Structures are given as C-alpha cells and as structure tokens.
C-alpha cells in the first residue's frame, strides 16, 4: 500500500448486485495534502499538479494517469481494463513569466497571507500534459496547462484516442454537465 495516495473505487457488478467495489486507480495529491495539513507549519505545495481524475461515458470509465504522461486507462463497467490511450507530447518548460503571473494572481486572493505562511510553492520543470479533461458529444476534450493570451491549448480526440483536432479555447472554458452550466450560464461550455 502506498502511503502517499488514496485509492478511488468504482462500482462493478459481476452479479448485478452493485454492492462491490473495485479499485482502479489512486489519487496521490489529496493524501499528501491532508498529511501536510495535519503536520502543520510550512510545507511544499505543488504549484502545478497533474490532473488526477476520471469521467464516465455511458458504460465506460476514462481515467487520466498523469504519472505515465499523456495517458488514459479505459475500463468497462465491471472495472476491467479495455484499452489505453498513450500519446507522445512535447514537454513544455514552466517559464519565469508563468511563475510571475501565477504569483500575481495568487496575491490577489484574500487568502494570500495564510498561504504565504503555510506553503512553499514548488514548480515542476515541465508542465504536466493534462490540466483537465472531459467527454462531450462523443469526443474527449483534453485541456493542457499551456495558456497564452488567455487562450488554452486543447486537444480533441475520439473515444479511442485518435486526435481529431488541436485548437485553442478561452482559458476559462471547461466542459461541465448541463446542471453546472445552468448555474453559471456566462462561462463558456465547450470549444467551437
């Protein structure tokens, strides 16, 4: 058992009882963060985290696996791995300008004084390949960490991982369910 991660489980139903769980991955950041809060004092805080998450599309579960790069593991509703998506990507270095902009934005928060006392911000050498992803209208939308002039690099793939388009979208754009969109109708939903 890895003490620096917390497993996430999904229901699977070989007997259709829906009363069993199967571990299909682990979130590493959350457990590290909880342990640092318990210890108190100033701690290393990743300024840029790889996206750790999953989304469900019909009877298929798509899990981002950032420790393996631009990588997704795809499972069926029983928690059995169907296939993987693994893409080559150009590593992009975290720039001094990005760091300056990051701190400029953080310092505008009402929580900055508390954060400054408790966090030692640590930047990776390279941006993680995935900032966020979701599935919409039969396509996978992968938003990267690369933002220039308020435009975010976005990769649109089919459900098997074939790249359909690489584009840029407003940096505030994020695919969400219709329920969350209704609560924030002014935020862009998906790239055109």
Describe the structure using short key phrases.
4-stranded antiparallel β-sheet, 40% strand, 4 helices, 192 residues, disordered N terminus, disordered C terminus, alpha+beta
Explain what the structure shows.
It is a single chain. The chain is α+β, with helices and mostly antiparallel strands and 192 residues long. It is 19% helix and 40% strand. It has 4 helices and 12 strands; from the N terminus they run ββαβββββααβββββα. It has helices spanning 28-39, 96-106, 112-118, 178-183; strands at residues 6-12, 20-27, 43-46, 54-57, 60-64, 70-76, 81-87, 119-122, 132-136, 139-148, 151-158, 163-170. It has a 4-stranded antiparallel beta sheet with strand order 4-5-6-7, with no helix packed on it. A hairpin with a 2-residue loop joins strand 10 (139-148) and strand 11 (151-158). The relative contact order is 0.13. The model is unreliable at 1-7, 11-16 and 176-192 (pLDDT under 50).
Entry summary:
By secondary structure, this protein is α+β, with helices and mostly antiparallel strands.
Measured by DSSP, the beta-strand proportion falls in 35-45%
Determine the fraction of residues in helical runs and give it as a percent range: 10-25%
Radius of gyration: 18 Å
Separation of termini? 43 Å
- Major sheet size, sense and barrel closure: 4 strands, antiparallel
Number of DSSP helices? 4
SS-derived structural category: alpha+beta
Mean pLDDT: 76
H-E string = EEHEEEEEHHEEEEEH
**Shape call:** globular
**Strands of the largest sheet, in order across it?**
4-5-6-7
Quaternary structure state of the chains depicted: single chain
User: What is the β-strand count?
Assistant: 12
Low-confidence stretches: 1-7, 11-16, 176-192
